[in-house]
Amino acid sequence: MATYLLLLIIAASAFSTLNADVSIDCGSSESYGDDYSIGWVGDDLYIQHGESVFTDRKKNCYNIDSEKGSKVLVRAYFFYGNYDGKSSPPKFDLHFDGNHWITVETSADQLVSYEAIYVTKTDTISVCVAQTFPNMFPFISAIEVRDLDSKMYGHSDSNRALMLRRRVAYGTEVIVRSTDDFYDRIWVPAVKGDDFTVLTSDETFIEVSLDDSPPRALFQNAFATDNTSTSIQLGTNLPTTKVPVYMNIYYSEASVLDSTQKRSLQLLVDGKINSKPFIPIYGTAGEITLYNLTANSDTTFSLAASPDSTLPPLINALEVFTVSDELTDGTNSDDGVLHSLQDEFNVLKDWGGDPCLPSPYSWDWINCTSGSTPRVTALYLGSFGLSGFLPDFSSMTSLEIIDLHNNSLIGSIPEFLGTLPNLKQLNLAGNDLSGTIPSSISKNKKLKLTVTDNPNLCVSGKSCKTASVDTSGSGGSSSSGGRKKSKLPVILGTTIPIFVLVWVIGGVCAVLHHKRKSEAIAAGNVGQAGGANKPSGNPQAAQMQMAANNMAQNVVNDFIMNVHEQQSAPEPVYNDDQQNHLEEGN
What we know:
Elements: H1 2-19, E1 22-25, E2 32-33, E3 39-42, E4 59-65, E5 71-78, E6 91-96, E7 99-105, E8 112-119, E9 124-130, E10 142-148, E11 162-169, E12 188-189, E13 196-200, E14 221-225, E15 232-233, E16 243-251, E17 265-269, E18 272-273, E19 286-295, E20 301-305, E21 314-315, E22 317-323, H2 338-344, E23 366-368, E24 376-380, E25 387-388, E26 401-403, E27 408-412, E28 425-427, E29 432-436, H3 439-442, E30 448-450, E31 457-458, H4 488-530, H5 539-568
Parallel strand pairs: 1-3, 11-12, 24-26, 25-27, 26-28, 27-29, 28-30, 29-31
Antiparallel strand pairs: 1-10, 2-3, 4-9, 5-8, 5-10, 6-7, 6-9, 8-11, 11-22, 13-14, 14-21, 15-20, 16-19, 16-22, 17-18, 17-20, 23-24
Signal peptide: 1-20
Transmembrane segments: 488-512
Main location: membrane
């Protein structure tokens, strides 16, 4: 049995990988199979901030990979179970892909679930919960995602979602889902009333060629009224306010009729005929779809026998949806590079879902504009524990404030920060940035810049040593903070003085040699003219030679002392307040 279960989970995982189908047990780290042959997985891969109950942040999101433009079914489950011992089921908001889904009202002892069908606009499905009431902390028990065929529910607008209100199977006694429904829709048995008769089809194999692909098991049983004068009232579970609705009614004749029998049906809305007569066919699934209509809980929907029908109406299954408002396209795509920040800094990966939507549930460290396609206007990432190099987010052209103070950022200040057209405040204080400040930033008089407490950073326009940062990637990760000091200043600081020293000594020696040669020639001439009685040599020339030797020695000593002082002098200290657009403080 254990081996079978393991194989089942592996098969389910492979199927999920190929079809992006997944069943997530939120709060769990284990994988297992259930009675419907569904493989469940823990939530480790889908949320970084996973907890049983979410007590902080504006919203907490699960992210599930999908293919952009695919039609999906998403279900979310909530079971309170008095986990906190307060016997007070909480209420909170449920979101998907940046859209408000519903306000969840959990039950003390009942499982609550919600389902939506829609076409994805990105390659990620997000399911989020958000606290909306004081001391009512959101949670989520399970999430399921199923890929649907693109032709299914084809009368719906691809820019809107179908929100399930009711899905029932008439005449069955058990739930119909994954083992019978390839798309794992959950068909709940309808409660039989006294006016209904359960019909069982004589055909064991029902032909189903409908675009909505209802499971064949639905057409084995049906409800029918006892006579032609009694209609089937359809329970819709619609809200009290009028909303757009989408409805599928499924039917199939259960028996072979003789020439005297005829079953013909009509759909009535509030007692008025809303469709042409339709005749169920034996052994074949049929469907009628109702859309482009608004209704509420007071609206009546019924199936009645048409005037020429000799048999009462029947029904096999029913789906009722409300239609959402137009789905958002999400935060402006130019701000999608926020994910590059998340890729660079692991601490930011805890945030998922749409960065700005739905308002006001943006990520905690950004500000956004209003509107259907908002822009990010501020990054508040001070003291976030960021370590490494700043990635390129130059496409975020609506940024007005960037606060990155008190982190461990390294490398030079990126040039692109000076090209952001709306940037008004840039706080880089308290990091380990190096190099010079780009002129596009330092000369921007409209920018409030703070760069204090960056020991290796040089203010633009000053002469100073800079640290050379290894960005080749061969020496470690960006979070290591390692640096290689440039040896060029040391090499130049020693090579240039030695070269000058050699040049000076050579020059002095050349002067002395020239003077000695001149004096020797002069002395020889004097000796030849003055006779042997005159002393040999020239006292004045000897004094000049001694003076020249002393002068050369003093020059060499002074130069050596100057070189020693230059090499041992402390590095200059630069204050940021020399430029009027630089500010101190965090």
